[in-house]
Specification:
Layout: H1 2-22, H2 35-63, H3 66-98, H4 107-127, H5 131-145, H6 148-159, E1 168-169, E2 172-173, H7 177-220
Helix pairs in contact: 1-7, 2-3, 2-5, 2-7, 3-4, 3-5, 3-7, 4-5, 4-6
Length: about 220
């Protein structure tokens, strides 16, 4: 976990310096376009987090391993936090580009909001059941909810929005090499942050469980 934390800190620092000091500035949008590097990287990382939650949910349904339930819940929780950051950075970008914080007729903004609300409902479901039922229902929901993620991914292709460019096409990256380098660094930084937070969350959950077990044994003794 320490190595991942160091990697996340180094990559985030390098990404910030590169994005604001080295990457070329967009001729039309100016400095606000630099938010693209983090906004899109955070959005992709949120989707990766939800994918991890889905896979862990499937593994729980297969093996009934409570550790997979912990991975799924932790990954989805971090994914929701990243989704909030996507909404915030997207609103800032929209304000600078469109003059308003939110545009309801933009499919990209609305579909990502829907995805976030779907995953927020995961925790409502999780708190409404106990023990094995909670883990089973949560796993099923994590798998079903992931169906909303591709909708958000493809919405940018139907939005036809200047603010939401298609980053990757069938022919490759839809940006100059000077931008692609720093986008990749930013994406690597956000993924490293996600892995670090996931490992930290799992460590905390397992430490809490160990303490509860120890407490029960002491009370029984």
């Amino acid at each position: 976990m320490v190595l991942w934390g160091v990697a996340a800190a180094v990559l985030t620092t390098v990404a910030a310096l590169g994005v604001f000091l080295v990457a070329p500035e967009d001729a039309d949008q100016g400095v606000i376009q630099r938010i693209f590097y983090f906004h899109v990287a955070i959005a992709i990382t949120a989707m990766v987090a939800f994918a991890v939650g889905c896979v862990a949910g499937l593994r729980y349904l297969w093996r009934r391993d409570p550790r997979q339930d912990e991975v799924s819940a932790a990954a989805i929780g971090i994914g929701v936090v990243f989704s909030v950051l996507v909404i915030i950075t997207g609103s800032i970008w929209a304000k600078a580009s469109w003059g308003t914080w939110w545009v309801w007729n933009d499919p990209r903004l609305v579909t990502f909001l829907i995805v976030m609300l779907i995953y927020l409902a995961y925790f409502v479901l999780r708190s409404s059941a106990e023990a094995d039922r909670r883990m089973r229902f949560s796993a099923i929901y994590a798998v079903a909810a992931f169906a909303s993620v591709p909708l958000s991914f493809y919405s940018v292709r139907v939005a036809e929005s200047f603010v939401h460019p298609v980053v990757f096409t069938q022919s490759g990256a839809n940006m100059p090499g000077s931008m692609l380098i720093w986008f990749v660094v930013s994406l690597a930084a956000m993924l490293a942050v996600f892995v670090t937070l996931l490992k930290l969350e799992l460590l905390q959950r397992r430490a809490d469980r160990a303490l509860q077990t120890l407490k029960l044994r002491l009370d029984a003794g």
